[in-house]
Design brief:
single chain; alpha+beta; 2 domains; three-stranded antiparallel sheet; three-stranded mixed sheet; 3 helices; 34% strand
Length: 135
């Protein structure tokens, strides 16, 4: 599989990534640092997207149903050399389905997630998956 995106920026302005039919604005200036995601936050967003995509994928393969899933991802950046050192996540899956095996789901996400496995090569990852009863 091959992937392609395009991105552009203008001097003293911010940038846009063009992905399929979506435009993703991101910050490259100090003026937008509190408004637009920066590259590190985009990396964490991609990591979260990988996990959520795999929740959907494995819900079909593992035959469980869920209403929704929420994830919070935190990253710790080192200064020298600048890089992500640690990523942690908390995934909540809202489901009443008894077939939801969170331990097996986590094992599958860790084994088959493209972004997960790419990031794992450069920093430590820890995470939890919690099944939340529907209210």
């Amino acid at each position: 599989m091959n992937y392609q995106i395009k991105a552009s920026s203008v001097s003293n302005k911010d940038a846009i990534a063009y992905v399929k039919q979506s435009n993703i604005n991101f910050g490259t200036t100090s003026a937008s640092s509190e408004i637009l995601p920066n590259p590190a936050e985009l990396l964490l967003s991609s990591f979260a997207a990988c996990i959520l995509k795999n929740v959907e994928r494995f819900s079909i393969m593992m035959k469980f149903s869920y209403i929704n899933a929420d994830i919070e991802v935190n990253g710790v950046r080192l200064e020298n050399p600048p890089r992500m050192d640690k990523i942690s996540y908390d995934l909540k899956i809202y489901s009443d389905d008894k077939k939801l095996n969170t331990a097996l789901l986590q094992k599958n996400i860790e084994k088959h997630g493209t972004i997960y496995n790419t990031v794992k090569l450069s920093c430590s990852i820890s995470g939890t998956i919690i099944k939340m009863e529907n209210v």
